[in-house]
Amino acid sequence: MGVRPSPYLEGLNPAQRAAVETLDGPVLMLAGAGTGKTRALTARIVHILNTQRAYPRQILAVTFTNKAAREMRLRINAMLGDQAEGMAWLGTFHSVCVKLLRRHAELVGLRPDFTILDSDDQLRLMKQLIIAANIDEKRWPARALANVIDGWKNKAIAPDSIPTSDASFYDGRAMRLYAEYQERLRQLNAVDFGDLLMHMVRIFQKYPDVLQKYQQDFKYILVDEYQDTNVAQYLWLRLLAGGHSNICCVGDDDQSIYGWRGAEVGNILRFERDFPGATVIRLEQNYRSTGHILAAASGVIAKNGGRLGKTLWTQSYMGEKVRLIGHWDNEEEARWVGEEIEALQRGTRGIGPFELDDMAILVRASHQMRGFEDRFLAIGLPYRVIGGPRFYERLEIRDAMAYFRLAVSSTDDLAFERIVNTPKRGLGEKAVQTIQRTARERGMSLLDAAGVVVEQRLLGGKALASLGGLVQQFYRWHDAVLAGRSHIEIAEEILDGSGYTTMWQNEKTPDAEGRLENLKELVKSLDNFENMQGFLEHVSLVAENESDDSQPQISIMTLHAAKGLEFPVVFLPGWEDGIFPSQRSLDESGLAALEEERRLAYVGITRAERVAIISFAATRFFHGQRQSMLPSRFIDELPHDDVEVLTPPTLNNGHYGAASSSPAQVEERAAKADVYNSPGWQRMQSRSVQRGAGGMKSARNVVIDAVASPVFELGQRVFHQKFGYGAVTALDAGKVMVAFDKAGEKHLMAHFLVPAAQ
Ligand code: ATP
Ligand code: MG
Fold first, then answer.
1. How many angstroms from the chain centroid is the CA of residue 605?
2. Closest-lying ligand to the alpha carbon of 224?
């Protein structure tokens, strides 16, 4: 066999090389962040192709995000050119399963053109079932049912195989509702996300001939980020690898961050048992980050119990310490980040200069993004939001998508329900009921039933005319899709013809403008696809904000979406208890959720190559109220020697804000000045100056002090949500002693108290 030279092997260390060259039998690569797992996995694919062990379509390679798949494909192409054409099975679990399921849909009672529902549709459907079952939706919300059902699907448990121990879920009615929900999906010719894998696992289990075909087709199986596979994904892999066992999984138990979505880190531990004789490879050299960054990340993750444990080292120089900075509030944090980005671009921070593409902001929760987006829009800093379903989740985008879906597939009843009266067409509840009844009686889709309603004049004059117009439009758009007319033209025609655009143009609310912009953006993004179907599929799977990548932009994303990525500069804002770690993880009694948050912190810090900047705010607005925040407990866990505490710029300038202000602004400024003048805050700052990062140890307590001391005085009246009103009797580091009128004396964290007037 003519083997081509193999430059892709050069530069790999011996352990990586072993992972690349051990092609027969199971291989598990278990190693910390930045040790070159993904790089080795990619080289392995190149090696398989280069040694002609398999054709591109015989390699099944599963990545965690579409972005990761795209990057892997680019790298393989760069190394092999044409030879890598036809890697049809490189993608996420979901994208691969959609393709498989379209081929075998009939085996689970679906047609190949099934629709993929998003979580919104899923909830709406469940709500209908809950109402039909006469269940009090307030006590038993659809969301709770969705969680139960998703949980089952993540374990590939179909309605007929629910363990008796789960029988009591959702008031004992989850089992029946689950069966009904699945039946409803089948009638709609639809699947939800969880179904994609569950259906495929069921098909493989029930039809050995189908399974066998794919066991032979996929000669090599490779899986990145294996620590985040759930049970259904695990079963699916085990079934497919069952024949030849040429499976290579790479992962890091310290980066398991999807436990809440059913991922089981135990899958890693089980690997050697399931695939006896597996070669286990450990990588220890980190190639990504400088010394201080790696040490800081290692210090944090060391606080977790039950780790497999591993050593990480780097040849790289120590580099910059992790930078830590506290701000008065999150607005100031966003402002500071914006300025810092520009300074790093100019190279005036003693390092760099860096391009915008080299920098990323990683947030714990997507709601933190808006503040940065707003700020960057204001100062004209180009940014992109990565990985989140943000853009496609917006109301106007979802409405537009429903129009497109119904134009493509006239049986998409959920889409019909969503838009039938949006914009308002005088088709209220009664009209919809008539259409639904007709659909049920005749066993047809809502759109077709609407046609019958019009024909038989089952509605009053105005509604009838309006419905007639709508049905006609949809038939026309559907024909246009079938005739292969430009999908961009069709989309424009739909948005204008349906009156949807006009609806927002007439709307006088401040956000209408932005929505119209978004709709334009949506039509623009169609250009990347061959046709409407391809686009809809992409959106339901990716839900990623495809922005203009031609110009340099800073990336904003959640920590979850940052997995596997790397950037020279990483901002980690919002490190406050209740934000990060999340409130949910703090409320839980066990440590499991908190440890998952800590792994997320580890993922975050290890994304950085040269600069990592952690920040927190002392106060934050929630539901229109300013709340004091505690710096994250993870800040305490950073090793002091690897951290440098920065001084907020507002402290240096002395003054703040514009000359003319509203009373509220004056008050806010006064409060702020108090915080900065408070002994606590100044102690924190001077400590950090005197002892470098050493001052940081008590940064949390000091900020508690700082926030508490201007607010509370001895004898002051305060209010606590649980204990009611009381008076302050003593103050010490971060805590306040309060004699409550009813609940007696309590020692409390200051931030649980608000000053009371009475
Ligand atoms: P994560 O756990 O975050 O997914 P990873 O283990 O997959 O990390 P990679 O992303 O593959 O790590 O590699 C991290 C960085 O190190 C990349 O920039 C990669 O190109 C580089 N790298 C990996 N192996 C080597 C090597 N042998 N020599 C030089 N650079 C390497
Ligand atoms: Mg990786």
1. 17
2. 2
